[in-house]
Amino acid sequence: MEAHKLRGVMYGLAVVVPVIMLLQNLVLGATDECVYSGIINLGDSNSDTGGSSAAFGQAPYPHGETFFHAPVGRLCDGRLIIDFIAESLGLPYLNAFLDAVGSNFTHGVNFATAGSIILPQTRTLKQSGFSPISLDVQWAQFNDFHRRTQIFCQKESIFQELLPKPELFSRALYTIDIGQNDSTSSLFLNKSTDQVKAVVPVIMDQFKNIVKDLPLAAFTYVDVYSVKYNLFTQTKKLGFKESLKTCCGYGGKLNYDKDVVCGATKKVKGKEVLVAKACKDPSVWINWDGFHYTEAANKYVFDQIVGGSFSDPPIPVKLACHRH
Ligand SMILES: *[C@@H]1O[C@H](CO)[C@@H](O)[C@H](O)[C@H]1NC(C)=O
Ligand SMILES: *[C@@H]1O[C@H](CO)[C@@H](O)[C@H](O)[C@H]1NC(C)=O
Ligand SMILES: *[C@@H]1O[C@H](CO)[C@@H](O)[C@H](O)[C@H]1NC(C)=O
């Protein structure tokens, strides 16, 4: 865990410690490409494919406009890093565990919700602004999902076409992408930078406790923080035009107003009119809505990490099932 360093401030307020962990359970010859039968993800909005929308209300248009052409539970104009990972492995996009309508979990499941944190959350979404579905809750949900799919898979029924086979759990790629809001939530409580830094070991201990519960897995730590940091320090060089300015928002120097966020509407002569709209070409913007990355930024991060250059051990996703 020594690779985590607090090195910057993003969006003016968030000291971030995002982490992607890939765990895999299968051990092959060291150079064989892994065959993942599915993906199991835990995380926050950076990998939320519908959990938060299912639990707390659908993210509105123009979320989803670039790729899905409709809102699809992602806080983004298009695909997330987890979607690019799924595509690269030839697997379907992940449905959210919490999404009761139309979900198909044969090739994986997603427990992430926007605003989830690593430390146990004790307050409601309204009170804190952060999801009550913190990492410990997602872990409990995963265990329940694991236990109950085994029971339902024995039954001759529609569930066989909707739930994973028992073998999936030992042949899945497990990804955990979380941590961005742990430090933000402390800052919202008006803690000083030093006080926030002091909480980091506590956060990492909780993270370790949960990850430790998969003792036979092969682990890869992916430093997405460095990649995301590059987006802000080398914006133009990487082909982007805007970094901190919000693509989908309203007002002010940064096109961001916390009370008029992406998708906000107002009534004009009895009609709902979109006030916080998206910029013309999100593909050259990094900051989608003031909190989340554009599809273009997510694609950049995926391209950087897929080969293993930011991983410890430094192996590509396709070889991450091997233990080192
Ligand atoms: C951080 O929290 C804010 C709400 O305070 C939320 O909109 C955002 O999605 C969260 N970010 C992540 C990465 O979960
Ligand atoms: C669920 O998805 C799998 C893989 O894409 C597919 O084979 C299966 O038929 C789907 N189930 C249903 C009920 O559509
Ligand atoms: C933090 O400080 C601001 C400005 O002084 C104040 O408005 C806000 O209520 C404080 N927040 C908390 C959680 O104490």
From TrEMBL:
GO molecular function, one term: hydrolase activity, acting on ester bonds
InterPro entries noted in UniProt: GDSL (IPR001087), SGNH_hydro_sf (IPR036514)
Signal sequence residues: 1-29
Keywords, sorted A to Z: Glycoprotein, Signal
Annotated coiled-coil segments of the chain: none
Family named by the database record: Belongs to the 'GDSL' lipolytic enzyme family.
PANTHER family: ALPHA-L-FUCOSIDASE 3 (PTHR22835:SF588), ZINC FINGER FYVE DOMAIN CONTAINING PROTEIN (PTHR22835)
Protein's name according to its UniProt entry: GDSL esterase/lipase
Gene source species: Quercus lobata
